[in-house]
Design brief:
By secondary structure, the chain is α+β, with helices and mostly antiparallel strands. Helices cover 34% and strands 38% of the residues. The longest helix has 16 residues, at 19-34.
């Protein structure tokens, strides 16, 4: 069963492949997969980074790694000021997911603000 792609978010369309926000998310995603906590913290917004110092987060990180999509595909996205919203799809074996990734520009760099995923199994 294929999951329908969401409509493009409001704002100026991102270039094919998602441009700089997508590159920043890809670097973050690789850091999560490797377990590189310093790079993970560097890849998220200041607001998100605060919660990563919590002992519970450190205990939950292996679950975060296990649940992260192994591969994903950029569908569409837009930038509105210092916020970029990207819609992506992922296929992990028999599970198909759609995701909305919100990035924020801090100090001239794109950082992950939020990820929301919806999954459907075959």
């Amino acid at each position: 069963m294929k999951v329908a792609a969401p409509p493009p978010p409001k704002g100026n369309p991102l270039p094919a492949g998602g441009g700089e926000p997508a590159k920043a998310y890809l670097a973050f995603d690789k850091a999560v997969a490797k377990g590189d906590m310093a790079a993970v913290k560097n890849g998220v917004s200041a607001e998100q980074r605060k919660s990563m110092d919590d002992a519970d987060f450190k205990k939950m990180f292996p679950l975060v790694q296990a649940m992260a999509p192994k591969t994903y595909k950029y569908v569409n996205g837009a930038v509105d000021g210092d916020t970029a919203t990207m819609n992506v799809t992922a296929d992990n074996g028999g599970e198909h997911s759609t995701g909305t990734i919100t990035m924020t520009r801090e100090g001239g760099m794109w950082k992950v603000q939020r990820e929301e995923w919806t999954s459907k199994s075959e």
